[in-house]
Write a structure and sequence with these properties.
By secondary structure, the chain is an all-alpha fold. It has helices at residues 2-19, 27-60, 63-84, 93-121, 123-150, 155-180, 186-211, 218-240.
Length: 241
């Protein structure tokens, strides 16, 4: 158990560091590479969900529990994004920043729980899940960083706010680890919730932006689709290997 905790801590720290890369890289470079990053993240998320998280969840909990957990997770994500109006262009700078960070806190809590639950099952599944979390965190946090800057936050304040929100991943991981000592099926439920979250992010947030990627630039669309296929291929190769 102590080794599992160490793995989880290292993975959560790596996730937090990766999420802050947006403030450390040139903004022009981030914009230029965003299409392929978003496509790759969508591919990795969908591949990880179908090839790793779902089988792992079904091995730890009954099919009914897994199904209900996925439906509940997707519904919660949809309600959350509707309630906070994350994509509303009418939001003021302060409101946009607050709702954006609130949505990120929810996502990060689920990500931390997914990492912990995966390592409780096996180091391999933990590494696969951590990689999927990090890969989708990078383009999401890059976009969030740009939005926070556009909302009026300075570079330092945007990074500080994002750093604070990253701590919620540790909270999700800690809750999962502590719960596992009480309820042995917690890993299956958390993996199912993570599967629903990953599906929602991949299908609703990331995949549409792949198809709409810079409509005026055929190259950007090709880069996004190439990234998507590369992400899916990576998961297929990993599952076969």
């Amino acid at each position: 158990m102590s080794r599992t905790v160490l793995y989880v801590v290292l993975a959560v720290v790596a996730d937090g560091c990766a999420a802050l890369t947006g403030g450390l890289l040139p903004e022009r470079w981030l914009e230029r590479g965003r299409s392929v990053l978003v496509g790759f993240a969508a591919g990795v998320l969908l591949g990880t969900t179908l090839l790793d998280l779902l089988p792992g969840a079904l091995a730890e909990a009954s099919g009914g529990v897994v199904f209900l957990s996925i439906v509940g997770s997707v519904s919660a994500m949809a309600f959350l994004e509707w309630a906070i109006g994350r994509r509303s262009p009418a939001s003021s700078g302060a409101r946009l920043a607050a709702t954006l960070l609130g949505a990120d806190a929810f996502h990060n809590t689920a990500d931390g729980g997914a990492i912990a639950a995966s390592f409780l099952i096996s180091p391999r599944l933990g590494i696969v899940t951590a990689v999927a979390v990090i890969v989708h965190e990078v383009p999401e946090e890059l976009a969030d960083y740009v939005l926070l800057r556009n909302a009026g936050l300075t570079r330092a304040r945007a990074l500080l706010a994002m750093s604070g929100v990253q701590l919620t991943a540790a909270i999700g991981a800690a809750i999962t680890l502590l719960s596992s000592a009480i309820w042995r099926h917690v890993s299956g439920v958390v993996l199912a919730v993570a599967a629903g979250t990953f599906l929602y992010i991949g299908l609703v947030d990331l995949l549409p932006s792949v198809w709409r990627s810079d409509p005026g630039r055929a190259r950007a669309r090709a880069e996004a689709v190439t990234g998507l296929l590369a992400g899916l291929a990576l998961n297929v190769f990993e599952s076969i290997w």
